[in-house]
């Protein structure tokens, strides 16, 4: 049985109950997510051949300091960096290093800033120079999966509707959906319930209610959906070494749908790809 609790009266820990937030929380999320989105915008011209992911990591840390924001991943469960950088066949949680990006790479940059106790969590894909059409198509499909998942969010629906929307589109495009990782509740906690699966059936999962805040972050592979975690305990890769992509937004459920907190102020939600029309 799923329990719901007013976030304002809930303890600041994962209790297994789904938090329902009010207007002040939505305003807090807007501020935190705006810093995250502006950082991801600022990274767009920086991502090019020859740049290292350690340089990106330093930029994210310094951007946060300049904006009174703390990178949530820094020292989180022993993680020593301010960002995750996942290249080509790395599904998620890629660790920054001194290896330069190469022409034709695709990289996911996942940033979470904490501002006044609120977590702004988002990620985008960035092409490195000119990329192959198969990679470009994967980015297009993955972003469309994200937006179709967001379009399924409304009070009274179930979280399975999000996953069903993503899975049906991805598989129609001959791609696969990673099952091992999912979206999650977010707010004053970095990771909270509910889990937001990116596959499933419309009548599965908890009921979506006004005031819920969570991430949607589908990971879509050109090959099979299977992944493995490397010996470092963080880096997840596709088992068949196929290309993978991910986009992520944090959303808050409203009376009629949802508000996307992490939209790009500069219209760079798909950096390196043509802007969406309409």
UniProtKB/TrEMBL annotation:
Pfam families for the chain: Peptidase_M24 (PF00557)
Domain spans labelled Peptidase M24: 27-254
Essential cofactor(s): Co(2+); Zn(2+); Mn(2+); Fe(2+)
Annotated a divalent metal cation 1 binding sites: 110, 121, 248
Keyword annotations of the record: Aminopeptidase, Hydrolase, Metal-binding, Protease
UniProt-annotated binding residues for a divalent metal cation 2: 121, 184, 217, 248
Details of cofactor binding: Binds 2 divalent metal cations per subunit. Has a high-affinity and a low affinity metal-binding site. The true nature of the physiological cofactor is under debate. The enzyme is active with cobalt, zinc, manganese or divalent iron ions. Most likely, methionine aminopeptidases function as mononuclear Fe(2+)-metalloproteases under physiological conditions, and the catalytically relevant metal-binding site has been assigned to the histidine-containing high-affinity site.
GO BP term, pick one: proteolysis
HAMAP family, A to Z: MetAP_1
Similarity-based family: Belongs to the peptidase M24A family. Methionine aminopeptidase type 1 subfamily.
Name of the protein in question: Methionine aminopeptidase
